[in-house]
Amino acid sequence: MPVFEPDPAALRAAVDSILRQSHRLLELIVIDDGCSDPLRGTLFSADKRVKLIRHEHNLGRSAARNTGLAAAEGKFIAWADDDDISLPGRLSAQLHHFRKHPEIDFLGTDMVFGDGRPVSPVFREPNQIRLAFMFRNPVNSPTIMFRRRVFDEGLRFDTSLQRAEDYDFYTRASESYIFASMRGVTVKYNYNPNAAGREEEARFANDLRMQLWDKFCGTKDDFAHLELAAIPVALPPGKLNDLATRVETLHAWYQNSGKPFADDFYTVLCTVMAHHIAAQPDAPQLWRQWRWMKYLWNCAWPLRVKAYLIRQR
Q1: Which helix (DSSP H) or strand (DSSP E) does residue 2 occupy?
Q2: Domain residue ranges of the chain, discontinuous segments joined by +
Q3: CA-angle at 98, arms to 97 and 99, nearest 5°
Q4: Integer Cα distance of 80 and 244 in angstroms
Q5: What angle do CA 124, 129, 132 make, to 5 degrees?
Q6: CA gap 198, 194 in Å, rounded
């Protein structure tokens, strides 16, 4: 848990949510990343499962996470931010999933915003998650748990990054390790869309997408990739048609290239396209036209969501 200039009440609630987990065999590593008012052990009561480490100067989130990773002794590591709440069964549920699926290295879950709005990952299958990193971060970062061996094998946060460091970490990890997302809410996420640096973080994340895209797919139609990765907004009909044409071109190119996971790639493309269609004011009418319905039908959204959208008037 990296900490820098925290809200004391939020920090205490975040810490308590970890210490009250139903899975009791844990250690909580708190990194005081140069707080002007140094954290005191008394803040965490007398619980001996808490390990407090202090940076004398603020080194940033990447360095703080690396410090925590190096100090961890368990076989599994879970993220915990200083203003998020982990539900009591979070650790036990994720550990149970890992035991059932020994092939998985990184595991995320569903979560809710502070106001109760749910945030469920669209992609659950490992191949689709890996491909989806080229368009956006497909996992709920605050819910991630992963195997300690990932760190032992050399993966680290890039300390030169102060924004989107988790996205960078995951994109590099996705080249060698298997990601999955299980169902069930485990974290209450305190997201502030107006926090300083959000625009800078978005720009940097876009650069990361392009790097991953070029590494996995070469430089085929980078402009289309940027447009598809953009946040969906209402578009003129001609622009939406253009995106659809680009999706089909990319799909045909990918199929003919002999690259792996062609079906999963099409599912990811259709899902990205479906998000753009859903943002259109006339989306209910578009879903009834086969040209657009096929993206809905082939996307990764649950069947109940597809049926609901098609029934809309």
Answers
A1: strand 2-3
A2: 2-189, 220-311
A3: 90
A4: 39
A5: 130
A6: 7
Which amino acid does the sequence have at 226?
Answer: L
Question: How is 73-89 classified by DSSP, letter by letter?
Answer: -SSEEE---TT-EE-TT
Whole-angstrom CA distances from 9 to 106, 115, 219 are: 30, 18, 48
CATH C-level class of 2-189:
alpha beta
- Asked whether the beta carbons of 180 and 104 are under 8 A apart, the reply is yes
Strand partners, 29: 51
Please report, to the nearest 10 degrees, the dihedral formed by the alpha carbons of residues 256, 258, 263, 268 taken in order: -90
Question: Could you tell me which residues come within 8 angstroms of residue 271 by beta carbon, excluding any fewer than 6 positions away?
Answer: 122, 123, 132, 299, 300, 301
pLDDT in tens, 163-184: 889 989 998 999 899 999 999 9
Say if CB 55 and CB 101 are below 8 A apart: no
At 275, the amino acid letter reads H
- Structure tokens, 272: 């990205």
Query: 262-278 and 237-257 are packed helices; what angle lies between their axes, rounded to 10 degrees?
Result: 170
Q: What is the pTM of this model?
A: 0.88
**Burial of residue 201 (number of CB atoms within 10 Å: 0-12, 13-18, 19+):** middle
Q: What is the pLDDT of residues 53-107, one digit of tens each?
A: 999 999 999 999 999 999 999 999 999 999 999 999 999 999 999 999 999 999 9
